[in-house]
Amino acid sequence: MNLVMQFGNVEAEIEFFASLVKADGWLKGDHIDLGLYLIRKRQQELEEVEISDWTTTDNHIHTCFADNKRKKEQVGWKIRNSLLNVVNGKVPACGMDWQNAYKYKHWVAVMIDLVKCEIKVYDSMVSLIPDEILKEELAPLSITIPNLLNTIDFYEEGVYANNCSRDWWCPWPIERVDVPQQSNQGDCGMFVLKYIELLSAEIPLATCTSQNMPFFRLKLAAEITRGDAYMP
Question: How many CB atoms sit inside 10 A of residue 174's CB?
Fold first, then answer.
C-alpha cells in the first residue's frame, strides 16, 4: 500500500518526504512550491508577520518564461495571460497583487525590486555557474518584467506611480548578492527557501548554513504535514 497525501495540486508520496529530509536530498519544484506557499500563507494569517510589501511566485513562472524565451527585440510581442495573472495576484495560491506588495541543475532565489527596478540573485553556490552564464539565463526575465509591468500600466497609478527609475524598455540589471554558501551538493533548494523566508521577514541570513539544513528540512516536512509554517 502506497501512502499518498494531497497538498493542493501536489500529491506527496513517501519518496517526496524521503528526498526532503535526506541529507543532500534534491528538492524538486513541488518541494519549492509548497515551501513558498506556506511562507505566503503565514504572511496572510499571522499578525506577527507585518512585512506586507513582498510576495513570491512559484515554479510555474519559470515554465512560462522557458516556453516563451524572449528574442533580442523588445517590442511588438504579446504578454502571456499566465504571467499577467502572477502580477495581478490571481496565482499562485495566497499570492498578492504586485501593487500591494536547466543547463545546470541548481536552484537560485531571484528578488525583483519594483522600486529600484533591478534583479538580485541569491545563489548558495556561486562557483557552479559563471556570472555571464547566469545573466544570460536570466536575461529573458530582465526584459519581460519591465514589459509586463508596462502592459498593465504598473507605474502609471497606485503606490508605485512614477517610482520606476528606468525606461520601461530598458532591461533591468542583474546582480549577484553575497550570501552564505552551501558546502555540499544537494542543499541549494533548501537554501533558496530559507533565503526567501528570512528576507521576507527582514531577518539576517546568518542561520543559512549547511550545518543547519538537516533541521530546516525536518522543519519544512513538519510544516507541510500540518499545512502551516512556523515562525522563521
Answer: 19
Exposure on the CB side of residue 24, measured as CA atoms within 13 A: 3
Give bridge partners of residue 110 from the DSSP assignment.
121
182, 210 in Cβ contact below 8 A?
yes
Going by C-alpha positions, the residue among 151, 44, 169 that lies closest to residue 100 is: 44
Q: How far lies 163's CA from each of 51, 113, 123, 148, 175, in Å? A: 20, 11, 28, 16, 20
With vertex at residue 204, the alpha carbon angle to CA 36 and CA 122, rounded to the nearest 5 degrees, is 55
The Cα 152–Cα 176 span in angstroms is 28
Three-state DSSP class for residue 88: coil
- Give φ, ψ of 191 to 5 degrees: -60, -45
Q: Is 176 exposed, middle or buried (0-12, 13-18, 19+ CB in 10 A)?
A: middle
Cα–Cα distance between 169 and 183 in angstroms, integer? 39
Instruction: Give the integer Cα–Cα distance in Å for 180 and 187.
Output: 12
Residue 47 in this model has a pLDDT that exceeds 60: no
Look up residue 229 and give its three cell numbers.
Answer: 509554517
Cβ atoms 223, 229 nearer than 8 A: yes
Please, what is the average pLDDT of the chain?
Answer: 78
> Residues 155-205: pLDDT tens digits?
887 666 766 777 777 899 999 999 999 998 889 999 999 999 999 888 999
Q: Superfamily for 4-226?
A: Adenoviral Proteinase; Chain A (3.40.395.10)
